[in-house]
Amino acid sequence: MSKKRIFSGAQPTGRLHLGNYLGALKNWVELQDEYDSIFCIVNLHALTLPQDPKTLRKSTLDLARVYLAAGIDPSKAVIFLQSDVPAHAELTWVLLCTARMGELERMTQFKDKAKGNTERAGVGLFSYPVLMASDILLYQTNLVPVGHDQKQHLELTRDLAERFNRDFGETFTIPEVFIPKAGARIRSLQDPAKKMSKSDENEAGAIFLDDGADAIAKKIKRAVTDSGTEISFDESRPAIHNLLTIYQLVTGKSEQECVDNFAGKGYGQFKAELADAVIEYLRPFQEQIASFDDASVAKILQDGAEKARSIASETLADAYAKLGIVT
Ligand code: AMP
Ligand code: TRP
Question: Which end of the chain offers a freer environment for a tag, N or C, measured as fewer CB atoms within 10 Å?
Answer without folding.
Answer: N
